[in-house]
Write a structure and sequence with these properties.
globular, 471 residues, Helicase, Ruva Protein, domain 3, alpha/beta, Rossmann fold, ATP-binding, five-stranded parallel beta sheet, 21 helices
Length: 471
């Protein structure tokens, strides 16, 4: 492909873009402009600003990456030939940090090999200096029109997720890209980090957005009840089944079914779920007839499913069916910059419900919130804010009240799953100490066979040899 044909292929798409839509995307769009020639940087920046763009400039690739950490632009325009990090190296770094962010490369050394190499790597456009004004703006319109999220503020799909963390923005960018397809997505991350919120956002960004989003916690129900909830049951299928019941697969037909804590699903049900996904039909309990279903599956877990597969607690074939794309949510402690944003949002919500006179947190209180460990993640932050609003008597919540709420959270009653896990670990430690690391004796005391006992030890990362007497 020669440079002229490549250039024309890019801009034949631009000519196909509706000009009204392109204009709305262009209005106020944020462009990161990168060039090591300061005079050209200033000149091109002025030209872009005269057309209504908001421009951030960087004189090197390294400076451009620092700008990306502070704020995500809608488009990057970069010179190709720069010292230390050239335009293609900058593009590759951008793709690692913000996948899908469109990049247009500018160069005074235009050549067919450069153009072909750039576009093969995924660069959106390649323009030769001196850049023709009309060609430049046509390329910008085209890039903004094809970007995952246009500058007109297409953020309704993720409106419930409040962040300015680059790590969270990368996850959201990936979520936006996978939302348009029908692939299964597994969301992983610690408890309380917002896995269901992300699943809902994916649904809202998908072609299924006008159909139901149905969620179920697979670890919250006993096996027979969970099977009935998922697949439904016929009248008389079991004691108490006095009428026919449509399951959640049918309730979500055409939309999205979110399976939370999928790692806690019993093995027999994993087999039935796999069959339903493979055959795209379900059979209600007690029925002989299969029902076709059309659902997109999103699932989530805080467990290490790789370890669960090794222990025989999760089916490998189901894992690969669910984990076509894996989105990993960071813990709140890794996005400390989000804590003040979230706290202000949450206090406004809580105040509107309970105490309208409450306006926010004092600066000292916000500092304490931002520097806390947050083992319970966003869910714990919600609880702390609710407690502070409930107990405050002043418009600005003081630091002392935040400290009190954090202390109360630390001593709060744990969830059933956390309490069970804590008891299991302390029990295993006790029997290993009693038997001095002898697994056979410890398993006998626990009333488990050796295989099950070893699985329990692996789940809690306990090594029997650590409990043997030192010689």
């Amino acid at each position: 492909m020669d440079a002229a044909r490549l250039h024309d292929s890019r801009h034949s798409r631009a000519r196909g873009v509706d000009t009204t839509q392109a204009g709305s995307r262009r209005q106020g769009a944020h462009i990161l402009l990168v060039d090591d020639d300061v005079s050209l940087l200033r000149l091109l920046g002025m030209r872009l600003e005269s057309r209504g763009f908001r421009v951030t400039t960087a004189e090197s690739g390294a400076e451009a990456l620092r700008c990306l950490e502070a704020e995500r632009p809608d488009l990057v325009l970069s010179d190709l030939r720069m010292d230390e990090m050239d335009g293609l190296a900058l593009f590759q770094a951008i793709q690692r940090e913000v996948p899908g962010l469109p990049v247009i490369i500018l160069t005074a050394h235009g050549s067919i090999p450069d153009a072909v190499s750039a576009t093969q790597q995924g660069v959106f456009g390649f323009l030769t200096k001196p850049v023709d004004r009309d060609e430049l703006f046509a390329a910008i319109d085209d890039a903004l029109a094809h970007a995952p999220s246009g500058s007109e503020g297409d953020i309704a799909w993720r409106a419930d997720i409040i962040t300015r963390s680059p790590e969270m923005e990368r996850v959201l960018e990936q979520a936006r890209m996978v939302a348009t397809s029908d692939v299964s997505v597994l969301v992983t991350g610690p408890s309380g980090s917002g896995k269901e919120l992300l699943a809902r956002a994916i649904h809202h960004a998908s072609p299924r957005a006008d159909k139901p989003f149905v969620a179920i916690n697979c670890g919250a129900l006993p096996e027979q009840l969970l099977e009935s909830e998922l697949f439904g049951h016929a009248k008389g299928a079991f004691t108490g089944a006095v009428s026919e019941h449509r399951g959640l697969f049918q309730a979500a037909d055409g939309g999205t079914l979110f399976l939370d804590e999928i790692g806690d699903m019993p093995l027999p049900l994993q087999v039935k779920l796999l069959r339903a996904l493979q055959e795209r039909q379900i059979r209600p309990l007690g029925s002989t007839a299969s029902v076709p279903v059309n659902v997109r599956i999103l699932s989530a877990t805080h467990r290490d499913l790789g370890q669960a597969m090794q222990q025989g607690e999760f089916r490998e074939d189901l894992f690969y069916r669910l984990n076509v794309v894996n989105l990993k949510l960071p813990p709140l402690k890794d996005r400390a910059e989000d804590v003040p944003l979230l706290a202000r949002h949450l206090v406004a919500q809580a105040a509107s419900r309970h105490k309208p006179f409450v306006k926010g947190f004092s600066s000292e209180a916000l500092n304490l919130l931002a520097t806390s460990a947050w083992p319970g993640n966003v869910r714990q932050l919600v609880n702390v804010v609710e407690q502070c609003v409930a107990l405050t008597t002043s418009p600005m919540i003081p630091e002392a009240l935040v400290a009190q709420a954090l202390a109360a959270e630390d001593s709060a009653l744990p969830t059933f799953n956390d309490a069970r896990a804590g008891f299991e670990r302390s029990y295993l430690v006790k029997v290993l100490k009693i038997t001095e690391g002898n697994v056979t004796q410890a398993a006998r005391i626990a009333g488990r066979n050796r295989t099950d006992f070893y699985k329990l030890l692996a789940r809690h990362e306990l090594e029997p040899s650590a409990f043997k007497p030192q010689r």
